[in-house]
Amino acid sequence: MSFIHTLITAVQPEVVQWRRYIHENPCLSHEEQPTADYVADILSKMPAPLDIKRLTPTSVIADLQGGAGEGPMYALRADMDALPLQEESGEPFSSKKPGVMHACGHDAHTAMLLGAVKVLCQVKDKIRGTVRFIFQHAEEVIPSGAKQLVELGVLDGVKMIFGLHVAAAIPAGKIASRCGTLYGSCDDFDIVIKGAGGHASQPELCIDPIVIGAQVVTSLQTIVSRRIGALTAPVLSVSTFHGGTGSYNVIPDSVHLRGTLRCLDRDVQARVPRMVEEIVAGVAKAHGAQHEVTWLEPNIVTYNDPAAYEIVKSVVSEFVAADAFVELEHP
After folding, report:
1. Residues 56 and 102 occupy one common structural domain
2. Which backbone phi and psi does 271 adopt, to 5 degrees?
3. How is the cofactor bound (predicted)?
4. Ligand-binding site membership of 242 (annotated)
5. What's the mean pLDDT when you consider all of the chain?
């Protein structure tokens, strides 16, 4: 254990250096080729040979074959994409790209996984089987890079896969998790209400999509409060409401709503979209309007396998600190 700690301490300055370089040079989803090239170059210089693959130009996969005999394949995964945000931190390693920054920690995830690669390369003779390192693109968008990589076979032969995410609410030096459901699913949607615009002084001659859209927003809240049991209640939020051109006296022809559904239960995730469509259709019909409801490709619930969870709990307690593991009570 002390040997592992020595290796971890030794690689920390490089992890900081890698993270700051990636932070300075962020790439948006599906545009990560410069980051992937940087990662691949570092992997090519590791202290043990790696089988490096580029299943896409924006991702990197590397396999480390252990030297202690045959065994299963385990995978470690990090994401690499940044967000379309302007950085105003003032840090000396701030983003060099206007309107793009690593605001979700993926720079840290990538650097930490590179650190893990270097440490494991130095103890490869103690490893049975194979460790696969997955540097994933496009985590922030749907469809995600994870789906693309899975379809390309990245998990073929993998027994277990482990990943992590930085969390400001967790104290430094602690690692938190829970068995079973950890994160909710994500279903994003667009709603268009098509009415008939006109002058605001004569609303009786119009089909006002703003009024209809407002009724849709409030009616959607009854799904959570009145149609789903409290123990499996999801979160349903309308986050965008666009209509009109800024004029004081013109009722627009249409409005566009956008929102997200988050669930901890797969059955609820399957049921709620139908309820949303029923409400939108009913409200629109009651006012003589037309409507469109479009759902983006969903992401399912993040579920921690009990066996994998126990491995994490044991390893953290042994190699980080006896009190370093924090068991989360709720997802």
Report:
1. yes
2. -85, -40
3. The Mn(2+) ion enhances activity.
4. no
5. 97
